[in-house]
Amino acid sequence: MIQKISLLPGVTLRCYPDSRFKQEGLSLQFVRPMCKEEAALNALLPAVLLRGCETAPDLRAITLRLDDLYGAAVGAQLRRVGDYQATGLSCSFMREEYALPGEQLRAPMFAFLEELLFRPGLVDGAFSPEYVESEKRNLTAAIAAQRNDKRAYANAQMVKKMCKGDSFGVPRFGEKEDVEAITPQSLYTHYQKILRESPINLFYVGAADPNKLADLLRPIFAKLDRNPITLPQQTAFCDCGGCRETEVMDVAQGKLCMGFTTPITLRDEDFVPMQLFNTVFGSGMVSKLFMKIREEMSLCYDIHSSYHGSKGIVTVSAGIDCNMDSKVEEEVLRQLKACQEGDISDTELKAAKEALCNQLRSTHDSPGAIEGYYAVSALSGMQLTPAEYMQAVEKATAEDIAKVAKTLQLHTVYFLRGEV
Questions:
Q1: How far is residue 121 from each of residues 25, 76, 137, 320, 384, measured CA to CA in Å?
Q2: pTM exceeds 0.90
Q3: To which H or E segment does residue 64 belong?
Q4: The sheet that has 11-17: what strands, in order across it?
Q5: Mean pLDDT, range 79-95, rounded to an integer
Q6: Looking at residue 247, what is its pLDDT?
Q7: CA–CA separation, 391 vs 379, rounded Å?
């Protein structure tokens, strides 16, 4: 059971007590409204913070400090959850019970995390130009890699066009031109704004007593001069009109992407049937799209669907021959209609339930998986524990799936094809 503790105004600690693991984990996220003006800055910031602080000014010094903590690890964290972008750091470290007698690990780890977050190494009152430029190159390379992966590129283009009036259309890493425009001073100014304004979410997995943990963490944030903002509530999809667009590029295989809208988000009671619908429809190796369109009809090389529950969007992506887009689109709509009419076999329903429940069981396999599930749930507004989620999955019927499937409306179609 999650224990939630308010450390200070705008600083919230969530603890998942669990003594099964030899490792403990803590994540810290600054939560920002997702917007184009900040996306690249938020994506770059944790990578620059991890390049050095006052007492460990470079990667070698950071590594040595972590080695002294029995091989602890610290990493950058960046999430886009609905209308929010969360940026920060996470760390994992060995439980003190497994260290030498009397040796502390938790307090020194938190102290080092504090240094990395709040006492960065500065040059002339701003972040190091060397570190900023280095991490800008890494970030622009990551953005370029998405373009080189034509499947990821096509999906991103479809979502961007579909969500042109919604924050969900802003890329998680920001745009290349926005990354290139960042300077050491502009990033440091934004960093100061984040420290001052942003709600801070901490999530801990381990065997420590939550109240003692809170006593250890509270003084770290009490030192900050803060005036935290109140974030707006998560919103459903903001529809500014769909489109149908074809882009020509030097590709051998076409990428067909279709975007559907539904009023059902993960904050609604029909969320679980909608998740089951997506699994039956196209998310898996025994889904209708895969079995019918790929396996039986051989109309595509790969095909799958995704449900973005924070917004109420279902996407379909298919790798196809460039002259097969109309046929594949027609068949996708036919399989959607089959779901809407309740044409779902017992085998399909059973397989979908098993797939979802297996995913949910795995959420307790590691501290990282636990943090991922509950920290994202806290940001998105999803209230179900994995156990409650699985119970709802088992209770859902084919009629429930048909009901939610009927809410889907085709909104946007994007086709990336090769030159004729």
A1: 25, 17, 20, 50, 41
A2: yes
A3: helix 59-68
A4: 3-8, 11-17, 200-206, 23-33, 84-94, 73-81
A5: 97
A6: 95
A7: 23
